[in-house]
Specification:
By secondary structure, this protein is of the alpha+beta class. It has 3 domains: 1-57; 63-129, no CATH class; 143-213, Pantoate--beta-alanine Ligase, Chain: A,domain 2 (2-Layer Sandwich), CATH 3.30.1300. It contains 7 helices and 5 strands. It has helices at residues 3-22, 25-32, 36-49, 70-83, 87-98, 104-113, 184-197; strands spanning 143-154, 157-168, 174-179, 204-207, 210-213. A 5-stranded mixed β-sheet has the order 3-2-1-4-5, with helices on one face. A hairpin with a 2-residue loop joins strand 1 and strand 2. Helix 1 (3-22) crosses helix 2 and helix 5 packs across helix 6. The N and C termini lie far apart (62 Å).
């Protein structure tokens, strides 16, 4: 059996195991970013066909030249599972924060291939209209500041880091720093960092819909 098929089986069995452990299918679906319809579809297929029923089917041969690169695909899945973003918001986030351009339909195909194209029932839907951007013509007039949580593993140990990113709305100039902790002290350090980094005076900083002006 191919490695990809084994990966499909292992991933879906982890979902089943989690549901059995906590005794709540709805919470399990929210945790893994899948719909209950998808969960029960996997369950039925497993009951009828065993492990082979958990392998994602291929309706037609894939064209590797049209497929989203693995590095981008991982970010798409991360945004879907952790933030329940839709295809449009994921496409927008990739371009804004990572300078990666993927069409909405391209994002949807990735989600569909991994069984994540439908949000669990009851999950609030978000759109980019909920996150208004203020594009200014004067450098430093408004700086957008966001914090991204980074999780990775080193020698089997889970490590958490916090990436602070600042983007000037006028020039799209960026500055970022990574810290061990998400604290007020590090937030102040980051503000001092961008004041020294950007070659223009900062008038307003926006973070989580809150404005701070100098």
């Amino acid at each position: 059996m191919e490695q990809r098929a084994l990966s499909d089986i292992a991933r879906k069995k982890r979902v089943f195991a989690h549901a059995k452990k906590i005794g709540n299918i709805a919470k399990t679906c929210r945790y893994f970013g899948i719909s209950r319809e998808t969960y029960y579809k996997w369950k039925r297929s497993f009951s009828e066909k065993g492990d082979i029923g958990l392998v994602n089917s291929k309706p037609c041969p894939e064209n590797p030249t049209l497929r989203v690169p693995q590095s981008i695909e991982e970010k798409i899945l991360h945004l879907r599972k952790n933030y329940h973003f839709g295809p449009e918001r994921i496409s927008w986030s990739l371009e804004r924060y990572f300078n990666m351009k993927v069409s909405t339909s391209g994002v949807y195909q990735v989600l569909k291939r991994h069984g994540l194209n439908k949000l669990p029932r009851g999950t609030p839907k978000r759109s980019i209209k909920d996150f208004k951007r203020y594009e200014k013509q004067v450098p430093g007039h408004r700086i957008q500041v966001d914090v991204k949580f980074l999780t990775f593993y080193k020698n089997g140990e889970k490590i958490r880091r916090f990436q602070y990113t600042a983007i000037d709305d006028a020039t799209r100039a960026r500055a970022l720093q990574v810290y061990d902790r998400h604290t007020q002290e590090n937030a102040i350090k980051f503000i001092d960092h961008i004041r020294q980094t950007f070659p223009f005076r900062i008038h307003t900083i926006q973070t989580d819909n809150v404005l701070y002006s100098e």
